[in-house]
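SUBJECT: A protein chain and its fold
Encoding: whole-number codes for local backbone shapes
RECORD BEGINS BELOW THIS LINE
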Amino acid sequence: MNTAENNPEDFSKSQQKHLMQCWSAQGSYEPIAVEKTEGCWIHTAEGRKIFDLRSAHECINLGFNHPKVLQAMREQMEKVVYVTDDFATEPTAKLAKTLAEITPGDPNKRVWFAQSGAAAVEAAIKAARFYKYNQMVKKGLSTTSEPHLYPYPYKIISRYRSYHGATAGAMSVSGDPRRWLQEPFVVPGVVHAPDAYCYRCPFNHTFPDCDLACADYIDQMIELEGGSAKVAAVIIEPIVGSNGIIPPPPGYLPRLREICDKWDILLIIDETMTGFGRTGKFFATEHYDIVPDIMVVGKALGVYVPLTAAIFSHKVAKSFDENLFGHGQSYSGHALACAAALAGIKILQEDGIVDHAREMGEYLGHKLAALAEKHSSVGDVRGIGLFWTIELIKDKGTKEPLRRATEKYSYTVVSKIAEYLLREKNIYIPADKFGIWVVPPLIVTQEEIDFLVDAIDEALVIADNEVN
């Protein structure tokens, strides 16, 4: 008998010995043995009950073990789990149609399914470049005066604080410090732009007097990078996620949409982290009333099963009616994952979860704002829906951060706070962010929010002591 299957300590040690933990030095890996999960909570084998304040990598918007999702998965497992896309299954077809209808814009879209956000981003990048190539061939080179030293528009403009995934193309369009681990072997043709980061405006302006200089700078970048003859797309997170949860100022995304239309290039919106109710609307894009050319969704889409998608507008999709879509992946359109996703979407639509997220988000925002007044280490509190962060600083005047971009994997006060919350308060947050991550499942209650904020209040004393 294999004792690792029966003894929590043994399976924890086995995982510690044989699993490669993401983004970590392996010598310090000490996984906590889990007995079960439910709602917002992780129950450990040693009897602890831990609140997951990062929603399992922002994947479980509905909390753990939602009975309706589990039932849908059980029923689908008795029918079809997976076939290739040469065959059709009911959940795969229904989910593609549903995503085409509920995402912004004309419902006459096409959807490509993957298992990771990075894979869907790769599809979006390739599709944008293929689309521009097909467009160029159809128009002919003689229609433009710019010199074509490269055969078709290929450049992608991204932003420095973005994160789009760990595969080669997705990491290359990420500005996140994790990109440095791949350099110099990044995919060519990516140019990074400044962020719409009002707390740390790269132009030293103040909104609204800035007149959205951060957006207009991208307009200049497109021109200086060769315009529509060289640039294929702009890719952004509508609300920056991993690098600070940074909502853009009003008007920024509409201005960016206008700029892309002006240059006849595509706008790719990556809603991997912000989709499916996280921001108090079904998609974050809805806050800004714009329609992307390509939308990437993932994480919470599959609920408990890995599933992501690149959703192509009719304009982009019809480009591939007679031209090859040169991308693919095993398990694309996985029927079991699609059944889980359909159940999750139905719950969000029918059970008032998105409205609840908006209401709890407003309550959480007010509670967190009070901490900013109380603690000298809090520079900025920002977020939307149930997507919040507390940015920690050394000085309110200079805004010097307590964790700089070059310190993402250094042991800093953010690491100390994460350790304190887990050890003393049974609250799990990631230790590698640039502030305190406050991203609970959308089913969180007001009582749980009170518990969380009180614990964070105590933990911030650690940062205050660092400052003083």
Remarks:
- The first strand starts at residue 34 and ends at 38.
- The radius of gyration is 23 Å.
- The domain at 32-65+352-467 is CATH 3.90.1150.10 (Aspartate Aminotransferase, domain 1).
